[in-house]
Design a protein that fits this description.
Radius of gyration: 15 Å
CATH topology: Pnp Oxidase, Chain A
Mean pLDDT: 82
Largest sheet: 6 strands, antiparallel, barrel
Low-confidence stretches: 1-31
Oligomer: single chain
Helix content: 10-25%
Shape: globular
Structural class: alpha+beta
Length: about 160
């Protein structure tokens, strides 16, 4: 699977940032091409913000979450919760187009496509990598109950 792919959607019109985080954040205009610094930043696991599109409202929804980079793959998972599915997972199932907001070594908005991973065999290497990074021993619980998405960065400069 490739980390970078051509964009499958158009950018959302930019709106002035209100200076706070909320569940209803303004639309963002992701960068349409990735520079060397952005590509390098995407090769490190880090805390990011992730914007999805609300499945019922169609409004941008922004959360802070940990982005994993392992074996040339970008993915997001979370703590196991058997009692519910996260809203951001439902949003991605309805619309897989997301924006990764890098905010550490590089501050930039990067468009991506997310795919929810439910197959246990496909989930295992991602969940095991996250469990190792977080020093967790409940891999079997994480396999069954942790959210998991794999991200492909939309990069219009990538050649096929």
């Amino acid at each position: 699977m490739r980390l970078f792919a051509a964009p499958a959607h158009s950018a959302v019109p930019a709106v002035k940032w209100p200076g706070r985080f909320s569940r209803e954040d303004p639309a963002v205009e992701p960068d349409s091409s990735l520079g060397e610094a952005t590509r390098a930043a995407l090769t490190h696991s880090q805390i990011i913000d992730l914007t999805t599109t609300g499945r019922r409202t169609g409004q941008p929804r922004r959360i802070e979450i940990f982005l994993h980079h392992d074996d040339d793959q970008l993915f997001i998972t979370g703590m196991p919760r058997a009692d519910r599915t996260r809203d951001w997972i439902y949003n991605i199932e309805a619309d897989p187009h997301v924006v990764i907001h890098l905010k550490a070594s590089v501050v930039i908005d990067v468009p991506a496509t997310a795919r929810v991973v439910t197959n246990i065999d496909e989930r295992r290497p991602f969940i095991e990598a996250a469990a190792k990074r977080w020093r967790r021993t409940d891999v079997s619980d994480m396999l069954r109950h942790s959210p998991l998405i794999v991200l492909t960065v939309d990069d219009s400069d990538d050649q096929h």
